[in-house]
Amino acid sequence: MANYTRTLLLVAFGAVIASGACGQTKPSGHRSCELGYDNSIFAPKSWPERDLDSYALRNLGIVVPQYDHFYLFIAYRKLSALSLTPTDVERLRPFDPCWDDGSRQWHGHDGWSASPMQSAQEAWRDARARVLPPSGRSQQNGSYDSVLGYLGRSVPNCNPDAYRNAARTLLDRLAVHGGDPFVVEWARGQDLVLGKCTAVSDELPAAAPVNAPDWYRHDRAYQTAAAQFYAGHYQRAAEAFDAIAQESSSPWKDIAPYLTARSQIRQASIDRAADNEALLTDARTRLDAAGAASKDEALRADIARLVQRARLTLEPQAVKAELDQHLSAATLPQTIGQDVRDFDPKALLELPADTDGRRFSQWLDAMRSTPELNGGEGRPANDLWLVAALQNSNVDGPQLSQLLARASRVPKASPAYYTAQYHIVRLTPEHDRAMRITRELLALPDDEFSRQDKNRLKAAAIGHARTLPEFALLAYRQPIAMTSARYDKASLPVVDSATAKVLNGALPLDTLFALYADPATPAPLRDELQGVVWVRGLVLKRWDVLHRLKPALQARLASASPILSQLDAAEDPAEKAAIGAMFLARYPGLVGSVPLPAFVGKKAAATWKDERAKLQATPNATDYLAKTILSWASIHPRDERLPPALRMLVRSSRGGCVSQESAGLGRTAFRHLHRHFPGREESKLTRVHY
Known about the structure:
With 690 residues, the protein is mostly helical. It has helices at 2-15, 52-57, 69-79, 86-92, 115-128, 144-147, 160-177, 181-195, 214-230, 234-246, 256-270, 276-293, 297-314, 316-328, 336-342, 360-368, 383-391, 400-408, 417-427, 431-442, 451-461, 468-475, 497-505, 509-517, 523-539, 543-556, 561-569, 573-586, 602-616, 621-635, 642-652, 662-676, 681-685, and strands at 30-31, 99-100, 104-105, 108-109. The strands form two sheets. Strands 1-2 form a two-stranded antiparallel ribbon. Helix 5 packs parallel to helix 7 (160-177) and helix 20 (431-442) packs antiparallel against helix 21 (451-461). The longest helix has 18 residues, at 160-177. The chain is flat. Residues 1-24, 138-154 and 371-375 have low confidence and may be disordered.
């Protein structure tokens, strides 16, 4: 009887609570961060590039206030020299915003795809197959969205424990009762209950017949209550579980108050018309009683978690203060992962004066506040508060020299070291000092100083560039690799928007070419510059620049070697311009993606002023190429190099970077293509113009 009762309690417990509440096991999955809409591909704002173990147990790198508060909590612990053990990290891991248990899909998170859910469903299918024929019902396409219509597909209506414990219980029933017909009926009833995970239905398991044994009658009462829960009828589920609690002979009676509270909390979360405060208060009373009566450690832990969830609504200030104490304590509780996630970083919290400077919430607010809101008076003179002070300082800030002096004294062994070095570069007026620090940090291996931090450092240091080699060192950014196949890594840019403005809008052509030709310029940046320099040279009719670029461009585009040779050999400027335009129309991807930098001298600045005037007078790419090519075509209508260029002009005139004139130019290109080259493949592929 003891084994029977224990199994039932596990089913009741597991069927309606979140997976993973029982015990501490290594979570299934891997760390996989997505950029999202508010992140830079060079220095993601919300998360550190390094994995959780490296970040938490080895090296923080540069700490920035935009990080999710989960990562700032870890930084707080390390900067405060507070305990953060490998066991703590394991407890935090499932709550890492980047943790992916297999549920991340194209449309967002889909809990049905998570590995725990997949394995649990497979366990149920295997157990079910012992007594019932295969079912055609899908087990992977339901959610609160289909059952309740208010959440999204990303949150399943059932969790893995519902399937896993159903499988375990069915096997137990078979072991105890063998081929009893009631075991088969139990499986059919459970099938109906789990069917509500994937389809909207108010159908309930059939009532137990009068000749049913006690074990079946009690199980069926539970199955009926669970069916109400999964159908979204939380009040009915609460009433059904409450009735079970009143039945002294039911092995479910001790767990029923917990399940009733569970139903009430769910009802309060989705039913805006309900008296949520009364529901949550009653749920908390039931949970307190259930926790006091239970000797099951896992159940007590989950009860405590649910009590905290209810109190987050009933007593938000008190709960945040308690969570702040947990997060700031000398040693961390077992619940630390849930505590960090439940901590609301946006909620205001008033703390007693004697906690000044010691709590996580105080430091987090200081890191994310503006300088005028972060007074700093009375703060401890330690690395934790130095980081906050540096973050909120600027080049005109008060006591900057004292701050920089303190930052320079941070030892390399300190978790604050790289953050301090970054802010020295950002804030110091000393060029040599900034460049020395920058070179030292950029020379470190990526596992010591990450690509993300190198990109962040370059962005801070580029204003110090005084020479072209220094600018070349700092201009290139290495994109942070994404794990999702949806990103084409080859198409990612290699400079940020600020640097791109300098390259495209502040450097004369000869300086751009010098930057391209410098062996010290990183190869990915040189590849980008090659197209920019070539196109700029074509527009400005700098045939000498195109001549010097010819060998490298031919090596890059072997199929274009003949036309590039023709361009180089042509003597008539009009022919050169036409050939260059036809080449560019065939290879549009060649084009790569303020104040003048300090290394641009007066003579170069004057040259750039003239070049900029010519470039600004140039129309958009489609119109520029179309006018150049059509002008040549009017004189040389059957030039064999025209068809590919004309076809591309027709296509580009339909959208993108176009003007009101573009459509007419596209129609002219279409007519010329079909009139003079009717049999060419390009004409066959360009059947209409619209």
